Prior knowledge:
four-stranded antiparallel β-sheet, alpha+beta, 11 helices, single chain, globular, Growth Hormone, Chain: A, about 375 residues
Amino acid sequence: MLRPFAMLLMLLAGSSARAHIASNGFLTLNIEGAQISGSIELAIRDGELAVGLDRDGDGRVTWRELQAGQDSLQKYVQGHLRLSGDSGPCRMQFNPLEVNERLDGNYLWLPLRADCATALTRLSIEYTLLDAEDPSHRGLLTLTSNGAAQTAVLGGAGDARRFELHQISFWPAFIEYLRAGIWHIWSGIDHLLFLLSLLLPAVLLRRRNRWEAVPLAAPAFFNIVKVVTAFTLAHSITLSLAAFDVIRLPSRLTESVIAASIIVAALNNVFPRVTEGRWRIAFAFGLLHGFGFASVLAEMGLPQGARLAALVAFNLGVETGQLAVVLAVMPLAYLLRATTFYRRGVMPWASTGIACLALFWLVQRALP
Length: 368
């Protein structure tokens, strides 16, 4: 009975092997009068998905292939990114393609310029890149005008977004960072798998070298609260310190240790060493997960004059997304806690699958 379950876990792991790093584009725009300058960055893997850059099909995209696919890529972006001002659409042009290196791989960097008919007081942005190819893709916008910066998360098959350039309101920025926090925790499954690994045993007790169901709901509830609170407190501390440039860690080191933390938490379910004090694991590794959250916030930037509000909104978004997952998963775990399926199936095999997936991430992130 357990073998098909294990095979299913491995299939799921394989299908989500790259899902720990969300598909993001980075759109940077600077407005001066009627002119817009900036750039758009797309992961090479997303460029390949959109226009098929790998001409010879060998699984690698070379510089020669990038140059050959440059016109197709520019036409694709022009067809899926529309900038409009007060007097209608702005005419967009691109400079030659370049490549920029980020933590999760190389990115296509397209410098752009757009000319509008009149000086801009508001800007409308329609971002539909990869809507058909990868609906999870989002564009992280940094928009600068009149010395003030705005940020937004674009995409998701929504309507065009309008931005006021002279009267920047507090609430739109707060909502943007709240949404960004929710989206990050839902798309960055490494954080969720770490938390899930610590929560799977919350509805069980370790007795006589085996897992047994908790007899009452109260112990399970307090176990869940302790783990979630410890994780929340820890990553909130380091997220705040990193956001205000008090402490910074190299991204590759942070992401590698996050993968290692998942391995430790998952294997602790298979070979239990820490049973009653899992909240300590949550707190210790949660400090490092906070630096992972901070890397996303650094990409978006904190708006001048509203840095604290943006930080609070982003952190609230992370907690909201995290809480939604806990509320969806843990009641089911409690109902199944006394079954052989949960104690001998989900606990060892799900934890093993999570550990194997995290090991893949560790190798991927640690190696240059």
